Amino acid sequence: MKWTLVALAEVPPQPWRNGGGATRELLAHPGPTDWRVRMSVADVHAAGPFSRFEGIERWFAVVEGDGVVLRLAEEERLLTRGDPPFRFDGGVPVHCTLFTGATRDFNLMAAPGQAQMWRVRGRRSFGAAAGTLLAVYGHDEDTQLEFAGGRVLVPARYFAWTLLEQPGTGVVASDHALWMEVKP
């Protein structure tokens, strides 16, 4: 199985229109203009609204900084680097406030019900069907993948992904990583 590795430092940041931050797009699958799955790391420098994506489910996780408060229509969510990823409707208005300063955050966007994201602390076993997109991002820690009898080391601040050609099981191991699965 071949994993594609993307170094965060090699992806140029794209400034936001509102001036509040910049995004590094790590994956837009199948392509940048017709994506069905998008994963990125955002540097948030100032409070402000999130871009809206109608018909998209978003997953959000803080990977650096003290954290944020996300305000949605009916909910307010405080998120720190240790919290589970937060899932929400990409079409609803969301306002982000920073706790004490800039944050770096991981974002996963896909059709509703198609994707999941977890924090990995230790070892996490997984099993996935053919056609599933698997991905991992370890911001401060190296991550070890064991799959189909092979091992892959994903260095800190690298993103790794693969599209399964056949069903399989494996293990992801890290002290602090994000693991994503997107159904076909």
From the structure above, extract its key features:
Hypothetical Protein Tm1070, Chain: A, six-stranded antiparallel beta sheet, Jelly Rolls, 184 residues, mainly beta, 2 domains
Explain the overall architecture.
This protein is an all-beta fold and about 180 residues long. It has no helices and 17 strands. The protein has strands at about 5, 15, 20-30, 35-45, 50, 55-65, 70, 75-80, 85-90, 95-100, 105-110, 115-130, 135-140, 145, 150-155, 160-165, 170-180. The strands form three sheets. Strands 1, 12, 13, 14, 15, 16 and 17 form a seven-stranded antiparallel sheet that branches. It has a six-stranded antiparallel sheet with strand order 2-3-4-11-6-9, with no helix packed on it. The radius of gyration is 16 Å and the shape is globular.
CATH topology of the largest domain: Jelly Rolls
Share of β-strand residues: over 45%
Q: If you average the pLDDT, what whole number results?
A: 95
Question: Radius of gyration from the CA trace?
Answer: 16 Å
End-to-end CA span: 17 Å
Binned, the helix content reads under 10%
Number of strands: 17
CATH class category label of the largest domain: Mainly Beta
The biggest sheet amounts to: 7 strands, antiparallel
Indicate the overall shape.
Answer: globular
Give the full name of the CATH homologous superfamily of the largest domain. Answer: Jelly Rolls
Order of helices and strands: EEEEEEEEEEEEEEEEE
Estimate nothing, just give the exact number of structural domains. 2
Question: Number of helix segments?
Answer: 0
**Uncertain spans:** none
For the record, the CATH architecture of the largest domain stands as Sandwich
SS-based class: mainly beta
